[in-house]
Structures are given as C-alpha cells and as structure tokens.
Amino acid sequence: MRFDIITLFPDFFASPLSSGLLGKALDKEIASVHLVNPRDFTLDKHHRVDDEPFGGGVGMVLKPEPIYAAVESLPILPRREVIFLTPQGEQMHQGLFRDLALNFEQIVLICGHYEGIDERIIPLVTREVSLGDFVLTGGEIPAMALLNGVVRLLPGTVGKEESLQAESFEQGLLDYPHYTRPAVFRGIPVPDVLLSGHHGKIEQWRKQQQLQRTRERRPDLWQDWIQEHPEELV
User: Fold this and answer.
1) Residue-wise pLDDT tens digits, 99-109
2) Alpha-carbon torsion 37, 40, 45, 50, what sign?
3) What angle do CA 3, 18, 81 make, to 5 degrees?
4) CA atoms within 13 A on the CB side of 88
5) What is the pLDDT of residues 88-100, one digit of tens each?
6) CA neighbours within 13 Å on the CB side: how many for 108?
C-alpha cells in the first residue's frame, strides 16, 4: 500500500516511520510512505503557503495553490482515497482502518495547519477524518495515527495475524486482561483459571471479562453490541 502525506513538517515523521513494527513493515515493503511538502510547490521567493482570511478574523489560512499542486504531482493508483485530517471529520475507529486496509491501494493524507484550509481544497478530498473532539496544532499526529492503524492490519506486519482478531474493537468489545510471568507480583496473583490449562474455561473467562469491561468502561459500545447480539444475553 502506498501512503502520500502532504505536510509542512516532513521531519515530524522521521522517527515514527523508522521505529517498531511500522519501521519493519516499511523495510519489508508491505507499505511505502512518501512525504510531500507544499512549500516545494510555491512560486514566490518566500515559499508562502498561508495568507490572511477573507472577511477578517484571527489566524492564517492555508492557500489552495500549493496543496493542489502537491496532490496533483502524485501518481494515481486505481483505488485511491484522499483524506483531509480535520476535527470536523469522521472520528477514527477500527472499522475505518479495516476499510482502508482492505479496499485501497493508495492513501493520500493532507495535514492541515494554522486556522484551517481554504475551503476550495475540499474538492480534492474523498474523506474527512478526525482523531477526536479536540484541536491539535496540525494534522501530522492524526495522520501518523491513521497510518499506524492501517499498516498494522496489512498482511505481514504483525507476526501472528490471529492476534488481530482478539483485540479491542475487532468483535465490538474491549479486550480481555492479559497476564504473564511471574505468577504473583507484589502480592497480586494471576487468576487461577489462566493457570488451569483448561482451554474451554479460559475462553469462557476471557469472554466474560470482555463483556464486563465493555459494559463498565464503554457503555456506548456495550449498547451497540447488545443490540447486535441479543441472543448472547439470554
């Protein structure tokens, strides 16, 4: 999968793209990331990418010309999504990551800055996505979150792909608690069932923990889940 990131701060991505599973996935060419700076497409000597808003107001607005030129400089793969990272977009969720991982070959990420972007950039965009109901200094952090969430779902990134099926949100529930050695840490023991070797009881315990955690911690997810699985509560 190809990622093209339109960003005024390409250096922001240097460390995350070379670390952990993401760095290994890029080394194995499971995905590729291309960073494009809109300043490289400006025509004035100061490489200006922003200007004052029409109608007045505080802050500066990203100009349309450099963004258009940056996006239009990219190759176009058959299945391409152009995403603008904005607080006004659809909030990121696991279903979105699965959709992008399964159905697209190229994802273009446009990172906003300043007070916002010129609205005439929106016709370039096929989807607007938000990290959450808050405002950051720019779109680089949301872009990195989306890239990470999608790449980890691509075949070959995670060593044991079956582990992806048992984590939070994949089944509409939060994940169950995990334990490893030592069996007792600071007086806190591992639940006996996990030491029993009885796989059926372990699976039952884990499912019960998922249900309990989701009900207590994410009542919104819990309501969605019980509507889709009423038979499991009988």
Assistant:
1) 999 999 999 99
2) negative
3) 10
4) 7
5) 999 999 999 999 9
6) 23
